[in-house]
Amino acid sequence: MLILGLFGLNVKRALFSDDRGYEVDGPYLAALYVEGTILAGQVDTFGIATGYQHQWTLDKIDELMNDPENKGILLFIDSPGGGVYESDELYLKLNEYKETTERPVYAVMGSMAASGGYYIAAAADEIFANRNTWTGSIGVTIGTLYDISELLEKYGVKTVTITAGRNKAMGSSVEPLTQEQQAIFQSLVDEAYEQFVGIVAEERNLDLDAVKNLADGRVYTAKQAMELGLVDSIGTMEDAVYAMSEKYDLWDCDVIDIVYQDHSLWGNLFGSVKIPDLKSGDVSALLEVVEGGNRFPISYECELLK
Questions:
Q1: Cα(215)–Cα(195) distance, rounded to whole angstroms?
Q2: Where is the Peptidase S49 domain (predicted)?
C-alpha cells in the first residue's frame, strides 16, 4: 500500500500517457537533442533508459531521412563527449542524412560541446555556439589506469591472473603496466586521434597541421573557437533557425523538438525515483574508484566536463 501510495500519480500517468511522439502538419525542421555522454545502453538502477539514447537517436535520423515533410536538422549539443565508436557512428549517420536528402544540418552548442560533442558537430553545414559554450577538447583518452599492486603487497594480498598471451591482462589494476603495453595503448589513442583531426580538417576546411596544432585536448570558449575556425557563428537556437530559413528559404517550416521520452509503464513508475549510492568505508570507496578507472573504453570525452 505504501509503494502504491508513493507511485500513485506516476501509475496514472503511465496508464494514460500518449506515446505518439511528435506531430507535424506540413514542412518542418527537426530540433534533435544530443544531451549528456554519447554512449550506448545508458540505464539507471532500475534498468530504465537515462540520458542520451544512442540507438534511438540513430533511428530518429533514419525516420527523418524518410520523411519528405522534414526539411532539415537543428542538432542541439550539450555534451562532454563520449565513446569513439558511438561518436563516429552518429557523425556518419548525420552525413548519411545530408548525402541522402540534400537537406541542411546545423549544429547548435549548449553549455558544452567538447571532444565527441565537437566530433559530431563537425558533420554540420554550419556550427553555432552559445557565447558561453565551452567546446574543442579535440583529443582522445583511454582513461586512467590504476596500479595497486604495491598496496596489495603491503597488506599481504596476493593475486593470480591466468592468461594466454603476455598482454592479455594489460591494464589490470593488480599488475604494473609494461613499456610494451603502454605503447600498445598509445597506438590505440593515436589512431583515433588521427581520425578525429582528419575529420575536423576536412569538414572545417582547415589545414591538417593547423588542426593538430590546436587539437592538444584543451577546451576553447566560443569566441576562441570562432577565431580558430572551429565554429561559424556565436548565437542561439533561434539564430540558427533564422540562418537556415534564410539560406534555404524555409520560412514556412515549423520547428519540432525531437526529444527522447520513456513512455513505458516501468519508466513512468520509477523514472523519478532516485536510489542513493551506498558506500561502506574507505576500502570500498577505493575499490570503486579503481574499478571505474580501469574500465577503459577509448573515448572522445573531456575529462574536465564529464
A1: 12
A2: 101-248
Candidates 12, 168, 223, 247; catalytic one: 168
Per-residue buried b or exposed e for 76-92, using 16+ beta carbons within 10 Å of the residue's own CB: bbbbbbbbbbbbbbbbe
Verify whether residue 60 is a known catalytic residue: no
Domain ranges across the chain: 22-301
Looking at domain 22-301, its CATH superfamily turns out to be 2-enoyl-CoA Hydratase; Chain A, domain 1 (3.90.226.10)
**Binning pLDDT at 50, 70 and 90, where does residue 44 land?**
confident
Under DSSP, is residue 35 helix (H, G, I), strand (E, B) or coil? strand
- Is residue 9 scored above 70 in pLDDT? no
Please identify which of the residues 79, 87, 93, 115 carries the catalytic annotation.
115
Determine the pLDDT at residue 302: 82
Rounded CA gap, 197 and 122, in Å?
11
Place of cell 506531430: 23
**Could you report the per-residue pLDDT of 250-263, keeping only the tens digit for each?**
999 999 999 887 65
